[in-house]
Q: What sequence folds into this?
């Protein structure tokens, strides 16, 4: 890396790195460091009358206070932080005191990983600490951490810019309290779901991520090319159709917790790559699935929060079963005053116009109803609510309702104004399913780019016979948002999708050469803030010389400084090239 691309702190850390190596100290040792304790456990288990406990701990050094021959450091391990007391003579029992005087005091930096062997004690101020008897450098940090500093009640160097936090999650996890806890809670959510499903006797399976047909949902897919087969493939938008094939194959119940990909927008509730749990169980219906789901979510909430309630956006949301069950057309009537029962597409279009909605000709009856519900109803359901009995036009994979013509046995679970789960009494009539697919293709012909494509192999599987089955998909990311009280999906994803980092435009070496600037001086000009040839056209030659030669001297580059006349020539030529 060019030294001019480094900050002064980074240069200083690299110099310390070299000094450590010159002393024979490996800044990145390969040997195992046998830790036997964690910070939080040490503090929780300590008693003043216990025998002296020897410990071996390791972690990042997050602060350091040097007081002559003694010092205090704060060590952060994977569970928390603990104070370490270090004295020169304890870690340097021989005549050579370099480990303390030079290495610890001068060559180590905040963020370095160190290992400490010693014993636990309580300081005079009452803080449980580790008295170091040996100290080992385990990994040298070359970039300074943005540690928050406070002066006169004002915080400095806070790492709170959302874009930086999401792009550099590894830094966010180190310096911001509570971030790691969120992801530990996410792990608890997934672990609890898996435990409940396993205990119920259902089998966790894996299905293809690359698929020849993007089926199982209404969404726009990502497309890639499979070189070995010389064919275009889709990143899956759902696992549904493959999991149903396994029900055809004889499994009692199957589930998958995995990634889906939908080439759609990003906002506080959506990420194009998201995690979903889908479950399918034979001989069940959507009524059974509602009961199973509310018990599952109650169990998850208790596992994460210790109780079945959670505060979300200022509301106390209760996941305690049972939940309200409300047909979608009744919900629309309740919120808008319009009863859509029995209406055809044209009549529903008229309702949309009366509601001052923006619609277009590509929307069929199902899409129109979905738009009405989304705009006027969805956001109003704060407590968990099963919205049930969707029109057949909205549900191409769902069994017709057993007693309500034109409707299907489907529910969506709404919580805090957003959809969390989608479930059906699954359609297992292959002839009906084929007609539903054909209707989807007619919508696609009208311009609906989210309509489903006919999956002929899935139809063939149904023709072999699928037992009565109920299935559900639960968005794991949204569930974690609810269980942790987060309002942005980016807060519960380790690495959410981001736009490429913006870089300042720079003139090429060839463009600089065109006005007479040698290649080695281009990074120096960039360091001074002159990225484009046009940036120097209005600069005074003496100032440009002072800036450039100052960097040459400061960073000890050793270049021969050009005379002011040379800078004047560069500036003159830059005017003609601009």
A:
């Amino acid at each position: 890396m060019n030294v001019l691309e480094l900050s002064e702190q980074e240069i200083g850390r690299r110099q310390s790195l070299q000094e450590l190596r010159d002393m024979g100290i490996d800044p990145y040792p390969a040997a195992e460091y046998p830790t036997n304790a964690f910070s939080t456990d040490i503090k929780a288990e300590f008693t003043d009358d216990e025998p002296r406990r020897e410990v071996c701990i390791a972690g990042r050094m997050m602060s350091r206070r040097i007081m002559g021959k003694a010092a205090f450091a704060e060590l952060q391990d994977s569970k928390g932080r603990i104070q370490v007391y270090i004295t020169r003579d304890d870690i340097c029992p021989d005549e050579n005191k370099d480990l303390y005087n030079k290495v610890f005091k001068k060559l180590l930096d905040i963020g370095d990983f160190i290992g400490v062997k010693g014993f636990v004690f309580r300081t005079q101020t009452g803080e449980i600490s580790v008295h170091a008897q040996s100290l080992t450098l385990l990994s040298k940090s070359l970039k300074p951490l943005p540690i928050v500093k406070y002066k006169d009640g004002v915080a400095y160097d806070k790492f709170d810019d959302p874009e930086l936090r999401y792009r550099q999650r590894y830094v966010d996890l180190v310096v911001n309290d509570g971030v790691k806890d969120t992801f530990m809670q996410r792990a608890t959510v997934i672990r609890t779901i898996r435990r409940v499903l396993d205990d119920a006797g259902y089998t966790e399976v894996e299905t293809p991520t690359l698929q020849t047909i993007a089926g199982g949902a209404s969404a726009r897919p990502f497309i890639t090319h499979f070189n070995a087969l010389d064919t275009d493939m889709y990143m899956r938008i759902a696992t549904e159709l493959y999991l149903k094939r396994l029900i055809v194959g004889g499994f009692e119940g199957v589930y998958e917790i995995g990634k889906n990909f939908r080439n759609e927008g990003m906002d506080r509730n959506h990420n194009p790559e998201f995690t979903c749990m889908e479950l399918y169980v034979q001989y069940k219906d959507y009524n059974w699935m509602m009961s199973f789901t509310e018990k599952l979510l109650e169990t998850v909430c208790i596992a994460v929060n210790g109780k079945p309630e959670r505060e979300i956006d200022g509301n106390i949301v209760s996941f305690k079963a049972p939940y309200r069950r409300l047909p979608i057309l009744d919900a629309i009537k309740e919120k808008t005053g319009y009863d859509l029962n029995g209406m055809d597409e044209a009549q529903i279009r008229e309702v949309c116009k009366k509601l001052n909605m923006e619609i277009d000709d590509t929307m069929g009856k199902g899409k129109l109803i979905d738009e009405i519900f989304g705009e006027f109803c969805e956001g109003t359901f704060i407590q968990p609510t099963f919205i049930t009995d969707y029109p057949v036009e909205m549900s191409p994979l769902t069994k017709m309702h057993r007693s309500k013509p034109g409707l299907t046995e489907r529910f969506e679970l709404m919580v805090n104004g957003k959809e969390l789960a989608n479930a059906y009494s699954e359609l297992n009539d292959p002839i009906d399913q084929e007609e539903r697919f054909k209707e989807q293709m007619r919508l696609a012909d009208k311009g609906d780019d989210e309509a489903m494509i006919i999956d002929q192999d899935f139809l063939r599987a149904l023709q072999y016979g699928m037992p009565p089955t109920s299935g559900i998909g639960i968005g794991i990311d949204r569930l974690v948002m609810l269980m942790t009280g987060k309002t942005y999906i980016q807060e519960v994803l380790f690495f959410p999708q981001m736009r490429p980092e913006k870089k300042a435009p720079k003139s090429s070496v060839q463009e600089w050469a065109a006005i007479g600037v040698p290649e080695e001086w281009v990074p120096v000009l960039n360091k001074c803030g002159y990225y484009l040839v046009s940036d120097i056209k209005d600069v005074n030659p003496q100032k440009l010389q002072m800036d450039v030669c100052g960097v040459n001297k400061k960073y000890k580059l050793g270049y021969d400084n050009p005379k002011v006349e040379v800078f004047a020539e560069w500036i003159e030529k830059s005017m003609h090239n601009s």
User: Anything to note?
Assistant: The first helix runs from residue 8 to 22. Residues 524 and 551 are 7 Å apart (CA to CA). DSSP finds 19 helices and 20 strands in the chain. The chain has a mean pLDDT of 94.
